Amino acid sequence: LLAPTEMSSPSLKTAAYILIGVGALTMLMGFLGCLGAVNEIRCLLGLYFTCLMIILITQVAAGLIIYFQKETLKEELSHIVKELIENYNPLNEDEKNLQDAWDYVQTQITCCGWIGAKDWEDNKIIINQSMTQYPCSCSNRSEDLEVGRGFCHLDDPVNGTATSNDWPVHEQGCMDGVEEWLKDNLGVILGVCTGVAVIELLGMILSISLCKNIHSEDYTKVPKS
Length: 225
Known about the structure:
By secondary structure, this protein is mostly helical. The protein contains 8 helices and 2 strands. The chain has 2 domains: about 10-85; about 95-185, Cd81 Antigen, Extracellular Domain, Chain: A, CATH 1.10.1450.
């Protein structure tokens, strides 16, 4: 089976590194902001303002990259998912987390495969079982969904063989399901992003105000000659 590094792509790796960097910067930023505000240290407040500005610019840049590179990202994600489906094996503990994540996606979005259930016809285990097994997370039957992962057996296959058309699974592919979910929740996503941006802008404004107040207090404390 493919190792986790082989399942990734340059774009997804870059996105992961950006998220790690932004997370670390956010933690450092919060610490510096609190320390600067409590002790009235102008340089720390200035650094806090700079970090917030960098994070805001990074978020805007990431949004633009995703928007303009969405077709490339979709193609890379399609390649990753199809490799995952082809090599899906419930007994492989090394890939368990990744496979469980995909099972969760199929269950929650009520979809099957990336384009459709036919993608699962390339799975090595299903091929060896003459297509008489199908992924439980794709199933439209409640008893199969209770299993949650792995493969379920088809009831009474004709001549011991079957195709994906014989499986009791959802017809919609996960690519269409994810796109539909994004469209349905676009308002919420944009609202959250806007809210985060507003909070960051308020933090930048407050840090500037504190710096000015500290500067004014320092000026009044200077003895006149």
